[in-house]
Amino acid sequence: MKNKYQGKTDEHLYFSDIRRYYDENGEERISAPADTHKVISLAQSEAYKRKVALKDRGKVWVACYHEPIRSVVKKLTLIEAGAIIKLLPYLRFKSEGRLINEGKPLKQKDIQKVLGRGKKATSSILNKLKKLGIIEVDKIETSNEYRLNSGYHSMGFVEKAHFTKLYQVKTREIIENLTISQTGMLYKLLPFFHYERYFLCANPNEKDPEFIRLLTREDLAVLTGHSRETVSRMMNALCDEGVIMQLSTAGVEAVIVHPDVMFRLNSETEHTRVVRKQFEHLRQHHEQRNQIKK
Question: Residue 123 sits in a domain of what CATH number?
Answer without folding.
Answer: 1.10.10
